[in-house]
Amino acid sequence: MTLANNYLSDLDSWLPDELVIEDVRRFIEIEAKGKLEMDSGLLVIPAGIVYEVVSKALIKQEPNIGFGSCFRAVVAVGGSTKQSSGILKALFVFVTFWYTISGKLITMDYAEETPL
User: What domain of life does the native source organism fall in (predicted)?
Assistant: First the structure.
């Protein structure tokens, strides 16, 4: 196994997909009650849809920059499709979560366009 594969495996153990999906499900279904206010208007997200983790990253930064070193995870609400240009589109919306190095949720954001 290469060093990069070790890193990817470690990233999955530090920030499991299950944790990220649990957080996005709680936000969408409980806190937002399936409704997100977008620039284009109210977006209603039905219950029981797919949540697809499309990106996870460990970001190394100085403590006084942004959130300092942290994890970032991007989830496609409703799943994703790849356009011919390779750009992902979410069925509904992308949700981005930032976590501390210890795995505590810092904040989140959502957008219709891919944040990748």
Answer: Bacteria
Contact of 95 with 75, CB cutoff 8 Å: yes
In a domain, 80, yes or no: yes
Count, residues in the chain = 116
Name, in order, each residue with C-beta under 8 angstroms of 51's C-beta and a sequence gap of 6 or more: 21, 24, 25, 28, 75, 76, 77
Least Cα distance to 36 among 22, 53, 24, 48 occurs for 24
Instruction: Please state the φ and ψ torsions of residue 34, each to the nearest 5 degrees.
Output: 75, 15
Segment 98-107 mean pLDDT:
92
Q: Is residue 116 part of a domain?
A: no
In a domain, 75, yes or no: yes
99 found inside a domain: yes
Q: Per-residue confidence at 87, pLDDT binned at 50, 70, 90?
A: confident
What integer best gives the mean pLDDT of the chain? 91
